[in-house]
Amino acid sequence: MSLLEQPEICRFVLESLQAGVYLVDKSRRILCWNDGAERISGYFRQDVVGRICEESILLHCDEQGTGLCGDACPVMRTIQDGTKREMSVYIRHKAGHLVPVYLWCIAIRDGRGNIAGASLSFEERKPEGNLEVRSQELAAHGCLDAITGLPNQAFTRTRLREHLGRYSEHRLPFSILLISLAEDKAITAIQGHPAAERMLQSAAQTLSNVLRPADFLGRWEGDQLLAILAGRTATPNRLQPIGRLVGLSRIHWWGDSVPVSVLLAAAEPQADDNLESLVARAQAELQKAGHAKPPEFRPAASAQAEG
């Protein structure tokens, strides 16, 4: 028997790959979950093996925030027709935030050529540039926020002034997006301030993975984050997917899975704008969005098109 014909050798290689790989049978029950899948998703083998993938363990969704379950499930469709599928999707990490990945799904056939299940592999889609080195530089100069790990408000103000300067001189388009926890006072009252901070962390991590590399995300005041969308206007068609994706994030708090509910509001620069006037318009829109929601805290509230 050759080396490649020894099943224990093949299994060892499969489970030690850096890419995430898992195998399912025809009922979509997970049979194998490798080291790469653990690293990328945060789920250990014992968390998922034996479970059916449609239980939304990873919550596959597309870049519009639409869930890939039911008829859109790539696993089910590949098991039905045997066609290989490749796509860019988001999965929900065990910690609750969304992670962008490339996903490949192929059918597994038995000795007679019949489809017996499917193999799925996925790799994290990492943004261009070395963000880790950049974060280390900011941390060394005291420019990172202690809670979210994002650039702090002082640095965010500096970046916003830079964009306003380029807009004033060259009319280079951009827009800002304010992101705030919905019902922050109610969240704090019911879940406690640490839970609100954890929600802000989850929203920050998901937004870091959802926004383009050219965009900027930083901490703002209170429970708010501020994104600078470079070279584009903040139309509803662009904001809605961002809100949906953040709304799919979760935190695990005292045994409960609590949705991260946010409000979004955007503003675009005008000819006579300074930093304060631009942010004030976004804050006014954010306040309108908050008033449009009922006063009580609703953990199941979504983050769609509030701003």
Q: How is this structure best described in words?
A:
- By secondary structure, the protein is an alpha+beta fold.
- It has 2 domains: 3-124, PAS domain (Beta-Lactamase), CATH 3.30.450.20; 131-291, Alpha-Beta Plaits (2-Layer Sandwich).
- The chain contains 10 helices and 11 strands.
- The protein has helices at 7-16, 35-41, 45-48, 74-81, 131-140, 153-170, 184-191, 193-210, 236-247, 275-291, and strands spanning 20-25, 30-33, 85-92, 98-109, 115-124, 174-181, 216-219, 224-230, 250-253, 256-259, 262-267.
- A 5-stranded antiparallel beta sheet has the order 2-1-5-4-3. A 4-stranded antiparallel beta sheet has the order 7-8-6-11, with helices on both faces. It has a two-stranded antiparallel ribbon with strand order 9-10.
- Strand 3 and strand 4 form a beta hairpin.
- The longest helix is centred in the middle third of the chain and has 18 residues, at 153-170.
